[in-house]
Amino acid sequence: MGMGRGDLTDAEWERLEPFLPVSNGRCGRWRDHRQVIDGILHRVRTGVQWRGLPDRFGPWKTVYERHRLWSADGTWERLLQRVQAAADAAGEIDWDIAVDSTIVRAHQHAAGARTDPPPTSKGAEAAEHQPEPPWQSLVARLVEVVREVRAWAARAAGSRASST
Q1: 93 DSSP β-pair partners
Q2: In which domain, by residue range, is 117 found?
Q3: pLDDT, tens only, 120-140
Q4: What residue stretches are annotated with the Insertion element IS402-like domain (predicted)?
Q5: What share of the chain is helix, strand, coil (3-state, %, to 5)?
Q6: 5 domain-assigned
Q7: Burial, 12: exposed, middle or buried (Cβ in 10 Å; 0-12, 13-18, 19+)?
Q8: How many domains does the chain divide into?
């Protein structure tokens, strides 16, 4: 199955996978997490209707149900917290993140700020073409999902609480 633009990279997946909930067996083996999560990320990024999800993500109802379940039981929030903590522990990034005000800033530690000689130009050139670090991009993706989940919850609460 080819990776589409915007799907999790292998590096992102390796960081996310250890934190994912394990199927309790009640609902059979969960369809490949990665495929479903890519489908959810695709929808959050593009705003496409669930029914409009490309076939490569599997049945849209499966993707929708997983997203609904994980939104309702707090799985997305937990994933974001755990991935942020792990990114922090890895020392890869200094976080400055505010989900609600939609700010996601991450900066690499100034590794060369000590007395190290500057990296050779070859390394510096390569670094410029590097995509953002996997932890950074993964947290940014999860923040997008959590933000949407919170907006949904707020709308739902608003319609329920309209009488107050």
Answers
A1: 108
A2: 10-159
A3: 545 544 545 556 788 888 999
A4: 8-79
A5: 60, 5, 30
A6: no
A7: buried
A8: 1
